[in-house]
Request: fold
Amino acid sequence: MPSVYSRPHTTNGDLGSLRVVHLITSLDVGGAERMLAKLVHSMDRQEFEPRVVTLSDDGLIAQHIRSLGIEVQSAGLR
Reply:
């Protein structure tokens, strides 16, 4: 059985980057949101492909994370 943590292989057989999805309730300005922004900013893009999903609408931190080139998706729940 393949591991949950197995890494995808590229067409030339090399290991690809590991996709990591961060789930958070909102991206309004707050402590957890700021720490998430620092975390995704510091992740090695050769090793990891970070993405962020917020359960509510976008906040100010979402704009900052997108400016880092990281995909942010909003579920739009209220």
